[in-house]
Amino acid sequence: MPARLVGDDTTVTRVASLTEAEEDAISFLVNPHFKKQLSQTRAGAVIVSADDACTVPHSAIVVDNPHVAFAHVAGWLHGETPPAAGIHPSASVDPDSHVHASAVVGAHCVVEAGAQIGADCWLGPGSVIGPNVRLGEGSHLVGNVTLCHGVNIGRRVLLHPGAVIGSDGFGLANDAGRWIKVPQVGGVILGDDVEVGANTTIDRGAIGDTVIGDGVKLDNLIHIAHNVKIGAHTAIAACSAVAGSAIIGQHCAIGGAVGIVGHLEIADNVTITAMSYVSQAITKPGVYSSGTPLEENAKWHRNFVRMKQLDDMARRLKKIESRLAASEHLDETKNND
């Protein structure tokens, strides 16, 4: 990303907000709401767009997209350094698995038969790698992550604590009132550069695979059901749930606590705002919302009562319209006579 320095050279060792930064820190400005803080910041450098460069008290780094540039800088300054390659003495690694010599297998990890751990992978403590799992190079399991049997993970994937990939989907058949488990024989495929948040679960497919595309970002506490397909570079915020066999397109942005019904399709470049309920297919790009905004309790109760009356009101309105139409027809007939 092209960048231009305005001001003097400076040395920074950390990132910080505009209000908390000192001379050893670098900050950034994206939201105009914080412009008033820019002229007063003590930051040694601030990443800004060209329009704001003249307001920076010290050094400015001018770029087209300050937020993206800040993300790169924060990664350079605060990125984790894995420990030395090797297998911790407390780990259990099956002799029929393959762990690359450059990989790190942390304390109390379990690597089962047939698993393949790629170059520069980092398995945090307590992680479980099931039979025949494939983990692509440079992937990082932060800790207590479970990859169930046959899961296929791409390169540079980041899995946060408690993530479970490849648990059984919710497949049940009703036998005269009793639920019978349907074996889930599919798998899960995660593309490259995927990030999965803490305690998020991705179920294996019932027959085919659950597929998460390249660059997908999933927040904490999300449930992805069996045979869901999520297109590349889609992001989903916390506490959302996607029911079985739903297909979500590429470059979508789904807000927190969104519920998506199974067996429907969402087009590319769709944004769904928080707390929405998606019960039908979305065929065109755009921004979609549902749900009732917060309001005073007494007013909400009144509106809720009226909402329950809408069906009756619609029927009464239809009758009135029919009577008006009949009356107008009668008047026309009389005028013609």
Concise synopsis of the structure shown:
With 337 residues, the chain is α/β, with parallel strands linked by helices.
What is the CATH topology of the largest domain?
UDP N-Acetylglucosamine Acyltransferase, domain 1
Write down the Rg.
28 Å
CATH superfamily of the largest domain: Hexapeptide repeat proteins
Stretches with pLDDT under 50, minimum 5 residues: none
Instruction: Kindly report how far apart the N and C termini lie.
Output: 81 Å
Number of helices: 4
Strand count, sense and barrel status of the largest sheet are: 11 strands, parallel
> Strand fraction band?
25-35%
Q: How many domains in all? A: 3
**Percent in helix:** 10-25%
Strand tally: 37
Structure class: alpha/beta
Return the average pLDDT rounded to an integer: 94
Physical arrangement of strands within the biggest beta sheet: 6-9-12-15-18-23-26-29-32-35-37
CATH arch. level architecture of the largest domain: 3 Solenoid
The coarse overall form would be: flat
Kindly provide the name of the CATH class of the largest domain: Mainly Beta
